[in-house]
Model the fold of this input.
Amino acid sequence: WVLNPVVAKKFGKEDPRGLQLALLERAEGDARASSNFSEEALDAVVSAKALEAVGDAFSDAGNALVETAGNSIATAAVQTVNTLTEAGMTLGSAVANAAVVVGKHIVKAAETQLAALPAAIKTVAEDIGKAAVQVGSVVADVGELAADATLHLAGDILQRAQSSIQQGVKLAEKVGKFIADKAVALGGEVAKLGPLVAGLAEAAWNEIKGFLSCFTESLTLCHVLLGGQCDCNAGSHVTPNASGFSMRCVFDSSSDFASGFGIRAVPAQKFPGRTAKGTVILPGDEYVQAYKMAGQIMRSRQALKERKAKAPIGSCESALDLAFEGAAQFAPDISISMSFNGDTEISIKGLIRASIDALVSAQGSCAFHAEKGIPRLPKSKVICGAYFCLAIMLQVVAELDIKGMLTGTLEISADVDFEIEGTVTVNPSGEAKANFRNPSIKHQDGFAIGASASSSVRVGMGPVLTVWPVPGIPINFHAMINAEAKAMGTLSFSSGMFLLQEESHHSTGTDMNASSTRSNEIGMCGAAALSTYADVDITSFALPSSFRAAISTSFLLVTGAMACIPGGDAVENTIMSAANTAASAIAGLIPDLDLDFSVESIQLMAPQKLWCKEVFKTPGFDAAPCAAEIGCKFAGRPPPRGVEMAPPEQVTNHVESDGAAAACHDIPMGDRFIELGRFRLADIDGNHFSISHEEGPTTIQIFRNDGTLHGGPRSDYSPWTREVGASKGIHFGFQYIQIGNFRLGAYDDTHLTISHVDGKTAQVFRSDGTLHPGPRDDFSTFDRAEGVPAGISFGDRFIQLGRFRIGDSDGNNLVVTHPETHVIQMYRHDGTRHKTLLQILPKLPQIPRKRKLGKRLRRARAINNLGKQVKDGAWTCHDIAEMAFGVCDPDFGAWGDRFIQLGEWRLAAIDDTHFSISHKDGQTAQIYRSDGSLHPGPRTDYGAWHRALGFPFGITFGPGFIQIGKFRLGAANDEHFSISHRDGNTIQIFRDDGTRHTGPRQDWGLWGITAGPASGVTFGDRFLQLGKFRIGDVDGRRFVVTHLKTGNLLQLYNSDGTLDPDESASWAGQLNNRYAQFHCGGIQTILGTCPGITTGDRFMQLGDWRLAAMDNNHFSISHRNGETAMIYKSDGTLHKGPREDWGGWDREAKKVTTPGASLLQWMGGRRRLLKSKKIKFPQVRHERIKFGDRFIQFGKFRIGEADETHFSISHKGKDGETSQTIQIFRSDGTLHPGPRTSHGLWDRETGAAQGVTFGDRFVQIGNFRIGDVDSSHFSVSHVQGQTIQVFRSDGTTHPGPRTDWTTFGRQLVDCTVE
Done:
């Protein structure tokens, strides 16, 4: 249900409907145009983002798009334009940018301005935080899941892990030798003192010798090594042996480690900045408190309204203020076993306690993450014996995440006591296992909201504990207690109070989330929930980034008491002095070791919920269409930042019920049918859809593809001979389920329909209880894209689509219901169809106790209760997509610099002229060259397996295609798949009929379509789906290109480097039979990239536009078609287009590493060098773009916000010269050109991006946005509504002040640009 907004287009002075007709005429007149390029192929998620998909369909380059993609893309675009126009939205405005288009409908969006909130909601929003939020009673629960993970590292990632392990080996060897040498010098018995020997002088040793008998009994190694932190009387011990050592530490409640670590909001506080990795640091004062026993209050609560801090500009679209308070503690029981070969096993158990409060006020779209480690340097204890060391480190981490549209205020409170226990085993060979569970939980929660929202806000707090036995392997354990609020609607709620929206509904008949007077608008869901949950994640093989500095400086050796005999105190003083000397001596070894802790830790277990509870739900929550999406099922903490993910084939995860999870309901499925109790809904043969009962079996109703109805009872057209099993022919989208060629879906809030793919609607069920049979051509849900099952939920023998439910009421009656009129239609087991008596007869004040009428009325009321049943709320159960397709598996492949890895194969841009498909065994099966030529294998060059996994540099997406470097692969339409190059050549075409057509040629290319959201692109087990085509690894030895509809094999690549396109189509079937993982989310979310944005040598691409420093003196804004709209020179002057030089499109999007010479770049258009001349090649320096506080740097140029009302482009200035400001864009919409020296950006340091956020083809810097509006128009605009300048694809510029052509309204996205 959580939808992505469509990007609206505006057509300037042209009449949109005239443009529509023109587009259709061009499409119909194109001989190569396909007539069935379906919108399904354009969208992998929920919205029918047709405008995003077609890019420049409405620009002057629209003809090129229609020529390659066919008329159905234009039709889809026209439909979306009609939808927005019918809704009365001004195309190109912020309101239209925020609109969510679903086929022919718009889903009512959250407000983006506080001024637009209803007065009652605004009042509540202003009052929240004036007093501490009201919390409920303490509730005891038990854990619901146990989770385990297995890791088998190999390849590059194993080498990096082993490099990290070597740092520990060096440490242990050096320190161990130092201790052993000192022991030899003082005598054998001194070895009993372990690492203390490093600090002992001979005189001190002689003083201690007399007390050795006491030491043997009382002052054990536990006291010497662990004293002061671990309770040696509660089972703690250190036991070295010939092959390694074992240890147990039961943390003493009085130790530093067991303290409570907290953060306190203070008035007039400010955000302290960012970490070195760029993460915003939460504001607030740190504090430490004594250990609190279970049952003791962790901390007192206070009102937070006056303690809010203003978040960095750009954190949200308009504004964000927040306050965070909390405290957490963890005093675990740790057992460790380590062999000197590096094998390590660690067991952890204990009680985690956390108390959190957060107050958030925001306006508009947000994509915000902040955290804080307490204390700043983690608590650490490092002990060393002969040839071994052990480091234990602890830090409490607080986090806050905000995503989506939030206009208003919410407050969250949670106190949780969370028991955790588990075991981790690792070895230097790269194998690791983890298993964790939580036996019990106690929690106390509070929640308040007054907002218009389509968002989630998560707060979390918990310990990060690192245990590093060296020469073993560091293991990082991170458990967190989270409270996550999600809301879809304009509403208010407070713990223990009524929902204002519901109260208003009952008293006045108004609903702030209902559809407006727009006939094509679907109302907001109107529900909110607070989910509290506990989770754990495990990383290993390296230290967390925040711990790396501490390990090299914080070595502390503390001994226990020596008071077993008179005079022991004096001896203890001697030992304490020796301990301090030893600590200094050992720490002094560290600089000599040249330890490298820069390797990132590797994810062993991603954050896994072990328990979750929807602690507060707004009234009517369980009947809300979005309940499944905003409850526990989809709550969760994202993977930690700065952690390396192992390739999917190296990781195995398993989750099972821990005995306390709720029972689950099931919706059995099979070949084109679903089963609801004793009824089945099925596509019989592609042309007949039936509802039948298992008795007989009896067919009750047939819906035909021609839109006609054929009633029962009858015994034909029954699906009951088919077996329940793996689903086949089942698809989902926004509030519909597709079964074969038929869709059952909520057309809007008041109409449920059954329609066929050919266009006919056979039945309409209306919320007023009336039926409207076909044949008819309206009310079909085939205008919507396939994707996640949004607005679909289920319960005991029923499914809910939007606000409608259909299900088995009592084993004998299948009913269609709606909240307004209850039962609309009843299908009886005997093959007949009925209304219920509650609708046929006038409402009776009392049901008669006797007689047949009374009995029938009571049964009718029981049937009516289907609409009141609570949905399957157990988050541990499978949702409907998981029942159809299996548990989400987002690990479809891997990626890195200009390559995608699918199983054993890599697709890569080797350089800007060669693209290859190669196998991990070393064979390259095919090379596609930029000149349009093919170069098949077998061959061993031009492979990409030497590149490391990592960030997907140079990779972006668009409708039905993936761009890798200068190459694009994708669906030109439903029948043609092509590989084409930026220079204009199409290298190969694969047709759905199994034929292949080689280049060089200039048609069916993909470079006439805008890069942006990955509509029509999804993934599954080792494959990518691009429109109606799939490419993927079949079995490790074969890689294929297939067509989904025809089932044809279009190409087969063998691991020996040969091609075999004429092989059996069964290889295509093996790939096509795998499920697409729509329910895992979008592919760009998985990769972490930003829609339509990529970078390279001193340039950033935003959709179809590039901002680039062409050299040290020229910065340009240019379009993909070759037009440069503006050049900014280092002397402060401007040089307008249209012009075709100084554009940045000759450069390849890729990872920029070391400076060097680029011959191709230097030569430009030159293709020959004179042999008679000695050419001196210039040293062209390649540079990555850089970031800082509200600026982006391109070589010698910077763009950014000078202050809240001025945005500028400036040059660093030549050596010794003052920097030049070339252009100022003012918030009032005016332009102020240079040369000038004011409002420059060169007084700021480069580093982590601050106040720089991204979204669909735009970047927001402070209060300003620059971005691609619709491919044809690029703009600079301000949050207050002014567009300051528009750049057109024809090379012309158009100044403000104006209010059109803005990118505001599009949502900020939590994504990465590097």
In short: The two ends are 31 Å apart (CA to CA).
